[in-house]
Amino acid sequence: MPRRNHMPDLLESQPDSPAASADARPDPAHDTPRDTPHDGARDRTRDGARDGAQNAPQRVRVMLPLPFAGALDYRMPPAGTLHPGDIVTVPLGRRTETGVVWDTHLRLPPEFMPPPMPTVATGRLRAVSARLDLPPLPAALRQFIDWVAAYTLSPPGMVLAMALRANAMAAAPRPAAGWAVTDTLPPDLRLTPARHRVLEIARLGTPLSTTELANRAGVGASVVRGLVQAGCLREVALPTPPAFGMPDPTHAPPVLEGEQADVARALRNTVAEDRFSITLLEGVTGSGKTEIYMEAIAACLEKGLQALVLLPEIALSSQWTGRFARRFGTQPALWHSDLGTRLRRVTWRSVADGAARVVVGARSALFLPFARLGLIIVDEEHETSFKQEEGVTYNARDMAVVRARMDAAPIVLVSATPSLETLANVGAGRYRHLRLGARHGNASMPQVRTLDMRADPPERGLFLSPVLTGAIRDAIGRQEQAMLFLNRRGYAPLTLCRTCGHRMQCPNCTAWLVEHRARHILTCHHCGHNEQMPPACPSCNAEDSLTPIGPGVERITEEARATFPDARILVMASDTLHGPAATADAVERIARREIDLVIGTQIVAKGWHFPHLTVVGIVDADLGLGGGDLRAAERTVQLLHQVAGRAGRAEAAGHVLLQSYVPDHPVMEALVSGDFTSFMEQEAEQRRPGFWPPFGRLVALIVSADTPEAADMTARALGHAAPHLDGVQVLGPAPAPLAILRGRHRQRLLLRARRNIPVQPIMREWLSRVKPERGARVDVDIDPISFL
Ligand code: ADP
Ligand code: ZN
Questions:
Q1: Are 163 and 98 in contact (CB under 8 A)?
Q2: Minimal CA–CA distance to 417: which of 119, 642, 602, 573?
Q3: Are the CB atoms for 566 and 473 separated by under 8 Å?
Q4: Is 772 part of any domain?
Q5: Of 138, 164, 190, which residue is a domain's last?
Q6: Residues 450, 456, 460, 466: is their CA dihedral positive or negative?
Q7: pLDDT of res. 69
Q8: Given 645, 662, 685, which residue is the final one in a domain?
Q9: Ligand of minimum distance to the alpha carbon of 741
Q10: First to last CA, the chain
Q11: Domain that holds residue 135
């Protein structure tokens, strides 16, 4: 079934569901975001008043977390009025669903407006079942959900589902009970000394629990229970202690001097303005960006507002929260998909009622119901892991900017190697720019040099040049640490038969199987297919003929163990470290110097602070440059610069060695010189003439089907129906690089448009003219990052 843009089908297949509302008309007065969103109460009256004036009072729109084209119409329950944002249950077919009372008018730019939906006659409306005792979804969040849905061409209910996935829908936890003295004591009360003491203490005013009351009076709990039975104590709800501590901005502020002080002051001023603005905080690794943006958080806390910090990878959060606690005296709230149910509910509520003051999380934290959002930070803004590729495809960095606008809050994008998109926005004057030029304290930038693999090749069958192994040996000899980086999991990326040339391939994907020797399997990194390594070639039956080609981290680890038999080696890869706790443990062992050599995939590139690490070897600096990805060079520079940045973060100088067969490549030159700015200027000049991002917009269409024919016919139909417009070009259809993925046949089309052309209406119109073949579906990826 097609996932997007075919919502009417879904509606028709639900004959007894109420049809979507017809009220989705543009409302020019609300195209622009509201300016004072921090007042939830005022907000609600405004919404309520407008509903009363312009809508039949008995009709209410409810958005359900389901793939409908819009909100559905229901009848107001007889017992009272509902306001936009209220969380309710409604009948849908024979089921009961939880949804949110939605706004009558979408506040979206005109080009984002979805087409109007048919109305249901008032007589046919079904009534809302109940209003749940939960904090309402704030207006800014509702508007954000509508915006993300319209921008990504996703059903708004699926975006709402991300906001409700918290499963915060459970009723409020029952508050703990305490006891207060009743107004009149029963006349026949037998007042023992023990009872007397309990009543004395209970009369002091603060209600106490049974245990607490008994303890303070120095009596057993049975005395308290006896008084309850005698009617002397009545139950009162105890105030629930806040789930999160109050971060104290004055707890341990850093000493800031020079440019750090200037930048911190500028950021504090930005937060003090308390309005929407976008700032890029750029600074080399180790320059104190994190330290400085903590000052922006402090300024936000001083204003009594909430702050949201987005990290590209939740594995990073342990080091981050520890640092936060040292600065502010308490832990921040954490948000990611692996939170336990209870913590998830408590956190959701605390964000909604404002008790959670600082939230650090992965991209899904963008959909939390902040009561008074005053600042968003996006750390490592260039990271492509901010793009969600499954379900609703959105880029959390870009959507964070939208969220900041809706909440009228400042946003700070942070990076040592900002994306070209962000740099273009700086260049156009849309973003402010703050820079930190030098590393903090005595640390200097690591020295980077290329190692020409043609001149200094490794021994036959090995992958580390003697120059690199020499540098590592020296570092370990000086009691320092070294790191080897290779962005490839497993033992070998390809297994080949030396006799017939057969390659071990995934049966479900256009991909080679990767050998994972430790687990004795061949596995597909795209679909998870596993098989045993066969004893003979499946094609020619030759025995002992299957040979691993190329290295993965496992193979590098094997080589390192043989080369440095006494070194304490730690492997950090996403399939060897399970979860944030394991990662945190590994990082602590490195910090405690229990490790001499770290070998890792991209997980080691992240913002870790390893003070004793002085030598970093990049096993294959050319790895990311292949393939037709338009951002291949940019991403390679960003990734390798970040890995390099792990070296020499304290007193001892750092050295980075790049193993490369193309040492003259502009990417290597940029890494060696550290002149990232010139490199990005060259990148910009390459993309500008063809209107490639950020100078134009891209939309990818991915057709996938059970059969090659269905994929092919759907793709060709899309090709025939392609728009012919000035400044718009459609490339394809063509088989996707991953022509088969999880058994589905794939074709791609790419729409490229000038930057000033809104692509959403074009896409909506185009897709409405093509009906996918049976078994085929069309996925839309606005601003694609992956082209596989
Ligand atoms: P970045 O985020 O730019 O990589 P960090 O904020 O992590 O840099 O700073 C690098 C190291 O220097 C950290 O250990 C940090 O605590 C320390 N540091 C940076 N600025 C200061 C400062 N003003 N006072 C004390 N320590 C600092
Ligand atoms: Zn596969």
A1: no
A2: 642
A3: no
A4: yes
A5: 164
A6: negative
A7: 87
A8: 685
A9: 2
A10: 22
A11: 59-164
Is the domain of 674 the same as that of 728? Answer: no
CA 31, CA 786: separation in Å to the nearest integer? 32
Q: How is residue 713 written in tokens?
A: 């016919």
User: Which residue stretches of the chain have pLDDT < 50?
Assistant: 1-55
Ligand 1 neighbour 440 (Cβ under 6 A): yes
Q: Which of 6, 784, 30 is nearest to 395 (CA)?
A: 784
Residue 91: per-residue pLDDT = 95
Q: Is 509 annotated as a binding residue?
A: yes
Check residue 234 and give its pLDDT: 86
Q: What are phi and psi of 304, to 5 degrees?
A: 80, 20
**How high is the pLDDT of residue 236?**
84
Query: Would you say the C-alpha torsion 338, 340, 343, 345 has a positive or negative sign?
Result: positive
Q: What is the pLDDT of residue 167?
A: 57
Q: How far is CA 732 from CA 402, 533, 701, 747, in A?
A: 31, 38, 10, 9
Which bound ligand lies closest to the C-alpha atom of 610?
Answer: 1
- Shared domain check, 590 and 459: yes
Nearest CA to ligand 1 atom 25: 254
373-379 β-sheet, strand order = 333-335, 358-361, 306-310, 373-379, 410-415, 277-283, 432-436
Q: Is the CB of 197 under 6 A from ligand 1?
A: no
Cβ atoms of 360 and 316 closer than 8 Å: no
* Cα 576 to Cα 518: distance, rounded to the nearest angstrom: 10
Assess whether the C-beta atom of 417 lies below 6 angstroms from ligand 1: no
Q: Is residue 532 part of a domain?
A: no
Are the CB atoms for 84 and 131 separated by under 8 Å? no
User: What pLDDT is recorded for position 488?
Assistant: 94
304 and 364 co-located in one domain? yes
Q: What is the pLDDT of residue 637?
A: 95
Under DSSP, is residue 455 helix (H, G, I), strand (E, B) or coil? coil
Q: Is the CB of 291 under 6 A from ligand 1?
A: yes
Structure confidence at residue 57 (pLDDT): 62
CB 70 within 8 A of CB 24: yes
pTM for this prediction: 0.84
Joined together, the tokens standing for residue 231 give: 């009617």
- What are the tokens at 769? 């003219």
